[in-house]
Amino acid sequence: MYAEREWRRDAPASTATTEREAPDGDRRAATGEAAVHDFAATVARAVDADEVRRALAAAARWAAGDAASWLAPDDEAARGVATIPVRAAGGRVWGRIEVGRPGGDAARHATAVRRLETVATLAALAFDRLDRAGRAARPSAEGGEPAPEPALHDATLLSAVLPFAIGQARRHEEPLSVLFIAIDQLRGVRDLLGAAEADRVVARVGARVAGLLRSSDLVGRLDDDRLMAILPRAELHDARQVGEKLARKAAADPALSGLPLGISLSVGAAELPTSATTLGGLLDAADAALSEARRRTSKPAARS
Questions:
Q1: Strand blocks (E) in the chain
Q2: Taking each helix axis from N to C terminus, what angle separates 49-63 and 24-43, rounded to the nearest 10 degrees?
Q3: 270-283 core/surface letters (b: 16 or more CB in 10 A; e: else)
Q4: How far is residue 52 from each of residues 49, 123, 209, measured CA to CA in Å?
Q5: Distance between CA atoms of 84 and 139, rounded to whole angstroms?
Q6: 70 bridge partner residues
Q7: What are the start-end ranges of the E strands in 104-214?
Q8: 62: CB partners within 8 A, 6+ apart
Q9: Which of 203, 220, 236, 201 is nearest to 162 (CA)?
Q10: Each residue's pLDDT tens digit in the chain (304 positions)?
């Protein structure tokens, strides 16, 4: 399923269900789940705010299902039965999503509101990222060095998208794999050069990983030491091959870290439903696979 040609960045990103693919009873829910995942994959790679706004408008329509939804500026009076702010870090509001026509039943749109809350969270994270990137690209007022590179998307994005990706995989009886990725030298970088330099190494490696995956895959920073990649429609053996390829590419690029040292990656893979049947079980299985990979990496080579 995860053929070599799918490593191209121009591989189809959309996983939205067409009318021919889903039974009538499941069509709206499946399309709504797909819209959330596709929006996450799009805004994770967006290069400007206009691109995010266009994707947000489309995602709001699809994720709402049979509920009417539209975008509204923050200074416009609310008209829907539910209002979902796109609230960035620090409380800044980029706008809002309105759901349902005046006089409508809010309870009827509860599922759409939950989806759209996730879409709003993803949009806010994307706006924050672009805002930080814009500040980093501009020299400081004192003419000093540019600000540090922004970090990858954090666990907030991953935790928002993964339940939808799992729901979609179950609905269509498709596999879904996750990778846990550790930079083996990161602890030493942090101890010797500090947390800021370690963060820059993670950002560079994460960007490289994202560039090697399909456009429908999603990469983020799981915690201080690990990246996570969500691979829709990838079976376990395919995910393991992806992990091996990432490790080979990292080892073959001595300049990847931006420091005078090479790096290596340890990668653990797990698949739904082969490795586990629940979200928690899937993450535990990937964590256990990563721990095993780290043990193999740290084991001294046998002498001949």
A1: 69-72, 82-87, 93-99, 176-183, 218-221, 226-232, 265-272
A2: 170
A3: bbbeebbeebeebb
A4: 5, 7, 22
A5: 35
A6: 98
A7: 176-183
A8: 16, 31, 32, 34, 35
A9: 220
A10: 333 333 222 333 333 333 333 334 455 556 767 778 788 778 777 888 888 888 888 888 887 877 778 787 766 777 777 888 887 765 677 888 888 876 666 677 788 888 888 888 888 878 877 777 776 665 544 454 444 444 455 666 677 778 878 888 888 889 999 999 999 988 888 888 888 888 888 888 988 898 888 877 888 888 878 899 999 999 999 999 999 999 999 989 888 888 877 889 999 999 999 999 999 999 999 999 999 999 987 765 444 4
Q: Report in angstroms the alpha-carbon separations of 61 from 28, 66, 70, 83, 86.
A: 11, 9, 7, 14, 15
C-beta of residue 229 within 8 angstroms of C-beta of residue 178: yes
Q: What angle do CA 78, 79, 82 make, to 5 degrees?
A: 80
The closest alpha carbon to 55, from 134, 131, 122, 130, belongs to 122
142 vs 193: CA distance, rounded Å: 25
224: amino acid identity, one letter: D
Query: Could you tell me the sign of the dihedral formed by the alpha carbons of 43, 218, 20, 277, in that order?
Result: negative
- CA nearest neighbour of 176 among 36, 278, 249: 278
Q: Which tokens in the block code for residue 248?
A: 């080979």
153 vs 64, 106, 147, 191, 247, CA distance in Å? 25, 32, 18, 23, 21
Domains and CATH numbers, the chain: 45-137 (no CATH), 155-298 (3.30.70.270)
At 127, which amino acid appears? F
